[in-house]
Each structure stands twice: as structure tokens, then as C-alpha cells.
């Protein structure tokens, strides 16, 4: 059936991105629209979202956002479209909250008013429905930034004309970041202190927005089935495993898709040469060009291992740091692109200065280099401590760059370990989060590269043929939305609605949807 879907999040490609969350929010709406739904997206207009570049149009009127004890706050709304589609996206214009260079923090310190900034985002997203006269069937929130949305829908907006019938879905991309604030944030939420209990919003005497969202959302999901299981355990639940377990009946996992218009070695314009599984000659050019650009010796006969990552503990960089001296004794080359914790900048930068023949390190964010690393390397390393989904291992498979991953969350779900007997699989896995296990597994991959060329060729073929499509993920999200509506409305009301509604008139493919343009 045709659905009205409101998606609210703090980042979306191409407007503002810190991590994979932005890739997901940038892609999913287009594929839902392609399935015939009316999808609207709302996010803050940070400084970096250029009004002219994206042809944003200021809508008439202002949003009045009730901010509890602070009183009413106001903001303008600019409308644009998601590039490559005609999905409307609404930007909240609030200079005080969002007119900043960085999204969440400065000098590795979260902004002190993040509670107000994101409670505002959550409330304003819901208030927007009035302004644009949109009555969603489902409101889809992402991570702690908009986790207050399901809480507010069950409380403040319970009888709201546009929202009272809507189900909510909270997608958890990362359990570590929970939006934990001084208890006074309850007064800004304005829903009453009776919700400040261990069951709902209280955690360690603080207001925990993610916890509230988990408690209140009609449906919950994470970005892989493996991670959905893991977050119910103390090892991965970051203290919220109990509340997650209580809601396990509505929790599932949906692996993210890949935007293959953006990540395709056959057409990728950021590469010095294109290639396919049938003709890999372009990949050799990519390797040699990458070595040149990084100042590494241009050798074809040495395996090149890449890594593109936020340099934070989640990504296993402490374990990599421990293993690095031994790794650099092997005849391999390593390239690391990333930014994050200051110690990592110094440590990896220093190691690269020490071994310029084997290790190149680039600190910073560089999308073009990320593409060239995916294409130019033989292996791609992801030693994550936890990984809800992970996108780079999926990109790297498409580029014939074999992932070496710690078997956790989405990495475990998406990569199949090499079996040297049958030559099946598409990557290399290890389980223990230790420098020894990391070293041994890179060693195994490199040994295979040197001594079992047919094995590597088979792995590469398997990897390049594998697809993680958004079409598939969007279909699963649609099922989740319908399930949520059924829970919210009850069977009878849901069936009635289904009978009244026109079926969703989806197109056969995203290319056929109005407004679609392939992206550069
Ligand atoms: P996370 O969201 O936890 O950082 P994901 O694997 O889901 O991890 O997504 C990371 C995304 O950010 C990928 O698209 C990756 O290519 C990109 N990325 C991360 N660091 C950099 C960087 N330094 N330069 C370019 N792209 C980066
Ligand atoms: C988070 C996770 C990452 C996931 C991304 C998109 O940032 O750390 O594993 O791929 O969200 O869902």
C-alpha cells in the first residue's frame, strides 16, 4: 500500500556527513520513493549546507517549537530535493543551534548544548508536519540524535492531528552514542518527570535519549542482523542491553545497501582507470597510481592493504597500532586514511615517517582518495571492535579488494571467510580483538596472495559478483513500516486502511522514477 513516510536524521549525503549514517539517510529515501511511497526527509541546515548549491527555497512561515522550560523557539524551513531524485528534503534553519562548522563537537568535545540542539531537531521534525500538511503513516528516526521522536510521539504529540495515528521506527546505527545529558533536559523535553524512570529515560542519573527511543518506538532495528543480536548482550549493549532485550519482539536487523551508482569500478570517475571482473587491467593502473600518489614504491609484486576509517576505538585502531610494527616487517604496503583521535594522528603519522617504503598515512577526510584506495588496494582492513554494519567492506568487495575483517556485527554478516579447500568465500576473518589475531589474519591473506594466485582470483570473483542492494534493503524497511502500522493501529483498523489506500505504484527500478539522475 502507498505510505507516507517522514524520515528525520541529523545527517544525509551529500549535504552533511560524519559517517555511514549519512550514506544511509542519503540513499534509503530515494529507494522508498522508487517503491511508490511519499517520502519526506528533515534535517538541520548546518553551515556547510549551501543554500545556493542545493537550490534551497525558504518556505513561508515559521515553525513554533515548544521547548519546555525554555519556552517556544522558532525556526525557518528551507526546502530542497535529494539529489538524483525528487524526494523533498526540509532543512531547519536555526542559526544558534546549527550555524556551526562541525556537526556535533569541537576539539573532540561534544557541544554543551547538544541536548537542546537535538531535542529541538526532534520536536521541529514533528512540528514540520503541520507546516507542510503532511500526515505520516510512519516516522522513521535514526540514532540518538532523533531518538526523542518516538518518545514525543507517545507523549506530547499523542493526540496531535497529524501524528496520533503514526507508527515510529527507530534505527540504531550505533549503541555507543546514546545522547546522555544532565537530568534538566527533562524540562526541555517537557513531557513530565514521571518519565524519568529507570524503565524509560533515566540512566545513571542522566537523561538518555536513545534509551527513551528504544522504550517508546513502535519498531526498532539495527543495520545488520548480527548487531541486533549483539546489542542484547553486555559486551555490545553499552548498558542498554536490558531495555533492548525487553523490546526484542520488535527488534530486527536490516543490512544497509550500497549506492552502486557511486561505488562502481566500471564507471567511477574518481579513478585513474576503470575496470571490471572480466578485465582487471585498470585495477593494476589504480594500484600503481595510488602507490605513486602516496609516495610508496610502485611495485606490482607486493600486496597493498588499505584502510579508510574514522580513527576511533570502535574501528580497532588501538589493536592496529599494537600490530603495526610487526605488520611492517612483512613484505607488504599499507595505506591508512582517516581522522579522529589525536593520539592516532601522531602515532600513525610517526610510523609513516619511519617506514615511508611500506606505510602511508593520510590524516583527514578525502572522498576521492577513499575511492582510489578502494580500487588500488589488494586488501581492505577493518579490525573493528564493533561494527553495526560497515560500508567499506561492501564497497571493497565490489572493487575486488578483499576485506580482512574482525567477525563482528555487519562485518560478520556481509563477509564470507575464505575456505582454501573449496576456494569459496570473499574475504578473511578473525574473531579475537587482539594484535595477534589481526597480525595472523593479515599474514594469512598476504601468504595466500603470494602463494595461491588461483585462490585470490576465486575470492576476487566472488567478491565482485556480490551485491548489497538498496532495492533489497528498502523492501525490508517497507515491511517493517507496515508491521509497525499494524501494531500501532491494530489489525482491524490497519486492514481498513489497506482497503482504502491505493497500492504503491512502484517503478521497476530507481532509474525510472521521476527526477532520477545518475550521480557523478
Ligand atoms: P562509520 O559510520 O562507523 O564511520 P561506515 O563504514 O558505515 O562507518 O561508514 C563510513 C563512511 O565514511 C564510508 O562511506 C567511508 O568511506 C567514509 N569515510 C570514513 N572516513 C573517511 C575519510 N577519512 N575520508 C573519506 N571517507 C571516509
Ligand atoms: C554507524 C556504524 C556503521 C554503519 C553506519 C551506517 O556509523 O558505525 O557500522 O555502517 O552507522 O548504518
Automatic annotation (TrEMBL):
SUPFAM superfamilies: UDP-Glycosyltransferase/glycogen phosphorylase (SSF53756). It is an enzyme of class 2 (transferase). Pathway: Glycan biosynthesis; glycogen biosynthesis. Residues 4-245 form the Starch synthase catalytic domain. Keywords: Glycogen biosynthesis, Glycosyltransferase, Transferase. Its EC number is 2.4.1.21. Residues 299-419 form the Glycosyl transferase family domain. The keyword Ligase does not apply. InterPro entries: Glyco_trans_1 (IPR001296), GS/SS (IPR011835), Starch_synth_cat_dom (IPR013534). ADP-alpha-D-glucose binds at residue 17. Residues 496-520 are annotated as: Disordered. GO terms for molecular function: alpha-1,4-glucan glucosyltransferase (ADP-glucose donor) activity. It catalyses: [(1->4)-alpha-D-glucosyl](n) + ADP-alpha-D-glucose = [(1->4)-alpha-D-glucosyl](n+1) + ADP + H(+). Belongs to the glycosyltransferase 1 family. Bacterial/plant glycogen synthase subfamily. NCBIfam families: glgA, PRK00654.1-2. Synthesizes alpha-1,4-glucan chains using ADP-glucose. This is Glycogen synthase. The lineage of its organism: Bacteria, Pseudomonadati, Thermodesulfobacteriota, Desulfuromonadia, Geobacterales.
